[in-house]
Methionyl-tRNA formyltransferase (Paenibacillus oceani), 319 residues
Amino acid sequence: MNVVFMGTPDFAVPSLQVLLEQGYNVVAVVTQPDRPKGRKRELAPTPVKAEAMKHGIPVLQPVKLRDPAAVEEVSSFKPDLIVTAAYGQILPKSLLAVPQHGCINVHGSLLPKYRGGAPIQHAVMNGEPVTGVTIMYMAAGLDTGDMISNVEVPITDEDTAGTLFDKLSVAGAELLRTTLPELLAGRIQAVQQNEADATYSPNISREDERIDWTKSSLQLFNQIRGLNPMPGAFTLLHGEVFKVWASRKPADDERTNGSAGKVRPGTVLQMTDDGLEVATGSGSIWLTHVQPAGKKAMSVSDLKRGTPIAKGTVLGETN
């Protein structure tokens, strides 16, 4: 059976590896075009392309998969099954109709919740206690196809989007390993999604990254870790971008009052070696790792030794 695999980031690599380890005939890999990377902005292959090249698998990198020429090129490999994982483009109907066993997707959420391009970040940002991976048939809509299998993965207070990406990547590959034989043998009955339960997780926007200090301390804790390791949450310090990479989960008293009192949200309450305490719309939050404009990311204790931030400074102001 000919399998075409479609994926782009690190998240997708374990799924490709499982297909190869289990002896499936991966005849081609489709991934996004190479992108500039690093300070020199040199073109770099996607993680999936790099893995495919190790195994001598042909790699296709169409700019737009909906282009008829791109569909024809993928179809020329006569796929019996297409497997996708975080590919980054919507498959056109003309391609969905090609493989006799259909097109299946390894999606990083428990569908129908968190359809869309950033399910992992949004799950953390919304403070979800659990998420997971769903393997589904691909359809014309955005992550609307029938569900084949799923697995739950807890979200701990220590998780960031980065750690959860890694957990779900491994969980998705293992789910693919156990699901495919059962699916191809006709022993799995796919289930329709309940549209009433559907939620969406669009790609992260610049406004998603901006810290709104009027939100509660717990909401901000989740936002900060949901944007780590990229693109990062930010506020303004003296009118310049001030990245916030990590914070401490607020204790019960910090969520309601802490040292904030009735001061303006965003006001610096104190700066110690333990962090930077900032007033929020409900209580206060301790920032622990930050990045001032033009500098590298650092702990607040390191920042304090070099450029302390005065008590009473209001973060988020344009000047």
The chain has a mean pLDDT of 95. The first strand starts at residue 2 and ends at 7.
